[in-house]
């Protein structure tokens, strides 16, 4: 067993108000808790990992090159491997979500990428 205490977990803060926290996971899958301020959007990006995005609080819009879906509390969406997408807080309050990736990944995806 490998517990991860939220307050002691690895954290990545790419923009003010956009925070990601690495939860328990492995090289086969990983969980990242995140929060976004109103109006914040991640850049359009893709990755080899399949991704499930679960909205825990607020509103999130997940957009691909062909479509978009608005997520409310407890709604989720599956993004296929290499499917370009972005996640935006389209509400007026802080949004909180949970991303699940398979295979698992680290924050190196964001820190080592070239725009």
TrEMBL record:
Any one Gene Ontology molecular-function term assigned to this protein's record: metal ion binding
Annotated Cupin type-2 domain residues: 35-101
Ranges annotated as spanning the membrane: none
Keyword Ubl conjugation part of the UniProt annotation: no
Pfam family, one: Cupin_2
Top-level taxon of origin: Archaea
InterPro entries: Cupin_2, GPI/OXD, RmlC-like_jellyroll, RmlC_Cupin_sf
Keywords: Isomerase, Metal-binding
Name by which UniProt lists this protein: Mannose-6-phosphate isomerase, cupin superfamily
